[in-house]
Predict the 3D structure of the following.
Amino acid sequence: MKIALAQINTKVGDLDGNTKIIIQNINAAKKMNADIVIFPELSITGYPPRDLLDFECFIDDNLKYLQKIREHARDISVIVGYIDKNPSSEGRKYFNAAALIENTRITAKYYKRLLPFYDIFDETRYFEPGKDNVIIKIKDKKLALTICEDLWNDKDYWKRAPYHINPAEEIIKLDVEGIINISASPYVLNKEKERFAVMKNIGLPVIYVNQAGGNDDLIFDGASFAMDKNGEITALCHQFREDLAADEIRPLSNIEEESVFNALCLGLSDYCRKTGFKKVVIGLSGGIDSAVTAAIAAHALGKENVLGITMPGMYSSAGSVSDSEKLSQNLGIGFKEIPIKEIFDCYIKGDKCVDLAEENLQARIRANILMIHSNRYGSLLLTTGNKSELAVGYCTLYGDMCGGLAVLSDTPKVMVYRLANYINRNREIIPRQVITKPPSAELKPDQKDQDTLPPYELLDAILKEFIEENRSIKEISKKYPGEVVRDMVKKINASEYKRRQAALGLKVTSRAFGTGRRFPVVQGYDFEN
């Protein structure tokens, strides 16, 4: 039996465009002489459709496109993800569903049984869980049909299993020769290794088909695969792009920086493509964050579509301008220099006191300059702040936080440095001085980040413990200085109001700010214990 893994890049809500991609891949799979072609979870609607599911017309239209796909399923079997209606008068109105189509007929339907409700997932808000396992037969092979989370209630993966049932354990007891799993599994660094480990632990052959591409803050890395009962990979799709594979094994990189770089490039390029932006504008400070953001943008969108603007102020070093210009030359992107001193002086009218308000004013003047370029030329303004600084509020609301997409907002500062060195792996693109000089906002004389923040290696370690692993101050202080931990947690909590107003950011860690972290702005818990 020849199985084609159709790893496609969908756009949420674009039922017509997604269906055309599905039909194109059905036809391509036929040319490969595949017996069956398998598509990702909710491949007709795109994932996650979120509150589009509140519109009944959206559900009805998705069912119409399922019928259109059915007409093209001749001389090949097709498994496709869609949304089905719940005929019962009780429970949620819809199912997260998979259909098996054979000779233009829908011969089997499966409804997702485990609905994730953590991190960025909120499927219990919309879907009714399925109740039954479904076994299908393809070329005399009996296979269990599952959707994404159904195989993830693994006691070896979770400290506490989040569901009362385990479909994988039930399937193992059935007389089946393998499992098909259609998925929409968002990217997190090293997530593909977790998938391999979880599927290997099942002990049956697994065909796993994931989507590829970016939708809003989420990046889907693909890396679909087929695995035999011993856990050996027999087919593997590309990572971070569409693919159609049967028995090919594409290489995956083991370099973390390369993985994050490719993820961010995909997230940025798809966000621009799917929202209609052709060009981006970036404020270049001469620092590492804006340099890495510019390099990602040039790679993702083409150098001709990127404009960097440096806006020196009273406290800017000479290097902030020269390093920005050299970076722009190395990348081949557009470059402008617009000083802000005269504008700044108009605001304060000579009453200088160099306080926090004046620091923030400089950042907000720069935001206005960037936004007029965004408005005038139809360019998307990219914010350049990293996760470490966003976490503790080391950023200016309506200033450097201003923009339409925050490329690095889930990338810790230490990883930003690693990305810079990766970008320079073959030749110097980011000037060496940008990487080696002490980071500074340059909003007051001789300012350095480390005047108010601990070393970034320490800060990032504390942030991971508190934000991603939900540990208390007491627990974190067993590893790191208690006063530093306490101060950073206080800053994190006090900055929640800023993050609520931040630009959408690309998720690359297990817990990003945004839809996956629903923290109160007003709250009084101290996290000591």
